[in-house]
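INTERNAL AUDIT FORM
Audit reference: QA-55
Scope: verify that the stored structure record matches its stored sequence.
Auditor: D.O.
Record contents follow.
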Amino acid sequence: MTKIYTLVNQKGGVGKTTSTINMAAYLARLGQHVLVVDLDPQANATSCLGVDKLGVQGGTYEALLGEPNIFPYVLLNERLHLSLLPSSPSLAGAEVELVDELAREMRLRKAILTISDRYDYVLIDCPPSLGLLTVNGLMAAVDGVIVPVQCEYLALEGLGQLTQTIERVRSALFPDLIVRGVVLTMFDSRTNLSTDVVAEVSKHFPNQVFKSVIPRSVRLAEAPSYGLPISEYAPTSVGALAYEALAKELLKSDTH
């Protein structure tokens, strides 16, 4: 049974794209068929997987504009055994182009459901905003949203906003929308603040915080510039071990 998760946080720089591609890479290593959907006009997930965003021939933009068959736009990374529905800068225009369209919030969900049976996991990387693209991402989150939260004070303020948005989408459009889990990122064991944030987030989302915490890591920051997930760039680093543990934790809870 395919699991479709959307990684969302309107705050930038919280490790959302990093979490998407690294969870995907480790799920693929664990034998799962995985599709990454890049829903961000900045196309960072696309670049992080070694694809030139300026050379993209089609992807999420076409999916949102109602292209009936999006499978030809899916790119397979044979080295990682990982599939990608890429983004490109043209996606920035989609919000404007969809303004007058009927059921515009459902476009991505409809497109993904036409190909989802080919995969065990679909992970959707949202832009750092709460606009129509993110709403499309939330509507496509059939099995829930995964929220990466940076272990810093300001991250807690952003969480309140995000919770309200999820609540609005739930009450107006998608009553079954759930928070699948919260991933704590950029944890620094040397500071009390990181520990305080972990405690505060656990209070906000009881029983929903993943046990695998992602530490601050230079290697994690470097990997995207090589177009590689951490599993390939620095497989023995602390960041790699943390994302491997997170992927195993998700897979284990999904199969029980």
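Auditor finding: record pair retrieved intact. The mean pLDDT is 92.
Action required: none
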